[in-house]
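Blinded run. Sample ID left blank on purpose so nobody reads anything into the name before looking at the predicted structure. Input follows.
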Amino acid sequence: MDTAGAGGTSWPWVENLRNGAQPGQRTWLDEWGIPTAVSICETSPLGFELVGSGGIRTGLDVAKCLALGADICGLALPVLRAYRRGGRDGALLCLQTVIADLKAVMLLVGAKDIPALKKRRPVITGRLREWITSRSRK
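Blinded prediction complete.
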């Protein structure tokens, strides 16, 4: 299951562009949605294999998604931008950087591999904590 949370491509914005809006013309609905981290937290207990996507830009973002319960992560914008700047080599360098950053985060938290990272209990603060606690009330 792909969480595709808010933070990545805004599909309401894409639809507005398809309907004739100018590229800079935005509305409040363009940012509508549940953030990726919240989507992962809410869907991980369901037992599906989860793809964390939506606003993923760095190896740190990937590590956070994995620690919150995603099984794999998808990122597009940084790779596409790197490709536009440097072609295939640029895209490859971008992905190598994401992997290196993920490995650095894993080293810093003492996780020797992805399963070990997924077993770490993340410290959740700020807006994510607010989302989780407000949505868990019955």
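Unblinding after everyone has recorded impressions. The domain at 11-136 is CATH 3.20.20.70 (TIM Barrel).
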